[in-house]
Amino acid sequence: MQHAERELTESVPLCDSKGLLNPESIGFARSPLVISNLKGQFMKKKRWNYWCIYGEDLLFSTTIVHLDHKAICLIYILDYETQRFYEKHLTLPFGRRIKMPEEPLDSIKFIHDELTVQFVHMQGETHLSVTIADFDNEPLHADLHIIHPDKDESLNVVIPKSRDTFHFTSKHTILPTGGFVKIGERRYDFNPYYSFAVHDYGRGVWNKMADWNWAMASQRTGGKRVGLNLGGSWTDGTGLTENAVFVEGTMYKIHEDVLFGRDTENLMNPWRIRTKFSHDINLTFKPFFQRQTLDHYFIRKMSVNQVIGYFHGKIRLPNDQVLPIRQMLGSILERTDR
Questions:
Q1: Which of 224, 250, 283, 287 is deepest in the core (most CB within 10 A)?
Q2: Tell me: the pLDDT tens digits for 80-91?
Q3: Closest CA relative to residue 328, chosen from 308, 306, 309, 311
Q4: Taking the domain 10-207, which CATH number applies?
Q5: pTM listed for this prediction
Q6: Tens-digit pLDDT profile for residues 149-201
Q7: Under CATH, to which class is 208-338 assigned?
Q8: From residue 330, how far is each of 37, 59, 230, 286, 306 by CA, in Å?
C-alpha cells in the first residue's frame, strides 16, 4: 500500500501567524521549498543542523541543536580501522547567541572558548570548519568543503501529527566532500570522489515523538553516487514518509512505509529493512560499531543509539530498475522518547 503523497512545487511557510502548522506546507518536495518560520510554543520547538561525512578512513560528524532552553554542539569521530571513537559536546543555557536559520543551507555558527564550529554556504558549496583545543586530549581541526551539485535533488518532508505537533526534515545526501580532519599529529584527507556528506536539517514542534528510526548511506556504488534515506515509526499514520533513494542526484521517492527489524536486546546483530507491503526494499544491515548518546541532553528520558555498518540487498526503484546494494557503508539511528 502506497501513500498518495502531495508534492510541493512552490515556496511555502511551515507555520501560520500563530505558530501553528500551515496546512499548505504538508507534503514533500525535491528542493528546500519550506521556510521554517517557527515561533511561540516555548519548550516545544526542536531545531537542529546535523552533518555526517563519510571519508575513506574516518567518519566525522558535527551537530548544532537548539531546544529553546539550551543549545548544544556535538562533534564525534570514528576511525573505521582502529575503531577509535570520541565524542565531545558543549551546552549553552538558553543559547541566545545561537541563531538557527529558517532555511536548510543558510550559514550557522557555534562559537565558544572551548570550540568553534561554522557551516558557511556560498556559491554551491558548504565550508564546514571545526576547531577544538582539547578533543580527546589532542587539538582537532577540520576544514571540509562540501559540494552541492547544481542538479542534485534533496528530500524535504513536512510530517503532520496535529496543528501544534509537526516536523519538517530536509535531507541532503551524496554531497562530494574534500578537505581534511587533523587530530593531534594524525591527518585524515577526504577525496571528493570517494567521500560524501549527509545533511539533516530538522525543524519541528513537539513534546514527545515516540520512536524514530533513520537509516542513511551515501557512497559510490557501481561507479555512481548512491544515497539511501529510510525512516520509520515516527511517520506512521501520517500519510507521508521520509523514504527515498538517490542515484547521481536524482531522487526516487518511496511512497511506502519501511519496517526496521532488529534484535532489541543486541543492536549489533544484523537488521532487516523492508517495505511494509511490497518487496521494493529488501536490505540487511550488518553493524560493526555502536554509539550511544544524548540521554542527558533533553528534559524527557530519551535514548539514542546509532549503529555504523554495511547495507546489503536490493532496491526496486519506481521505474522498475533494480538497484543492487553491496557492502554499502552507512548507519542506522534509533531514538526512543519516553
A1: 283
A2: 999 999 999 999
A3: 311
A4: 2.40.370
A5: 0.95
A6: 999 999 999 999 888 999 999 999 999 999 999 999 999 999 999 999 999 99
A7: mainly beta
A8: 32, 10, 11, 10, 10
